[in-house]
Design goal:
The protein has 219 residues and is of the alpha/beta class. It is 39% helix and 19% strand. It has 2 domains: 105 residues, no CATH class; 103 residues, no CATH class.
């Protein structure tokens, strides 16, 4: 656990705390909060992600077992009901803004693509993740199959996704694309497959001064 704390501290050094605090103030994340602040919530969720804790009970028990080793970062033991309420009630845009802040930080250090053209290049696509239907009955995809779908905009100038949405497996790709504001700057070349052929939506890309490359539908 002491080795993990060292690694955990190194990860925390990458987090722009002042930007996180500004987002908390912007969206009133700590309004009427007595002790379990947004930062406390973030520490707990980051710990759960690193340690692959997949339930609130597992997070609570693990933090309680090592409570004497968390004092130096200000993380207290928590109840799963407290974490559940925080996850349900607090504004998701606090973490969303943190993500985009870290994304810009990653972009500044990642290598650029080696293509000869200077335009930004992105790929818009989706992938299906199979799930066991008996364990995840909410993710019904077919009669005997469960799945969820990850929709993403892949930025080739650094090999990192700049946009990602998780939906039910049945959700069509172009419906997600049309319902979201994608971070596409003018001049970007967007590569996509036939699932995204919707002429109104493609026209919206053209109006935003972006280019798109796709395959024609079979006749």
């Amino acid at each position: 656990m002491s080795h993990f704390n060292t690694v955990y501290n190194e990860v925390l050094h990458l987090i722009p705390r002042h930007q996180f605090d500004n987002s908390v103030k912007k969206y009133n994340g700590d309004y009427y909060v007595k002790y379990f602040s947004c930062w406390q919530q973030f520490l707990a969720l980051l710990y759960a992600q690193i340690k692959s804790k997949d339930s609130l009970r597992d997070i609570e028990i693990s933090l309680r077992a090592h409570s004497n080793k968390w004092y130096h970062i200000g993380l207290r033991g928590i109840k799963r009901s407290t974490l559940s309420d925080a996850n349900k009630l607090r504004d998701y845009r606090i973490c969303q803004e943190l993500f985009y802040s870290l994304l810009e930080k990653c972009r500044s250090v990642t290598p650029k693509h080696k293509f000869r053209f200077k335009n930004p290049l992105c790929t818009l696509d989706a992938t299906v993740i199979d799930l066991c239907l008996s364990l995840f009955p909410w993710a019904r995809f077919k009669k005997t199959k469960g799945a969820l779908k990850i929709h993403y905009l892949y930025d080739h100038s650094g090999a990192i996704p700049s946009f990602l949405v998780v939906t039910e497996g049945k959700q069509h790709e172009v419906k997600v694309a049309k319902s979201m504001v994608l971070p596409i700057v003018p001049g970007t070349i967007v590569s996509e497959d036939r699932a995204y052929i919707d002429y109104k939506w493609l026209y919206s890309l053209n109006k935003s001064k972006a280019f798109f490359v796709t395959r024609s539908k079979k006749t």
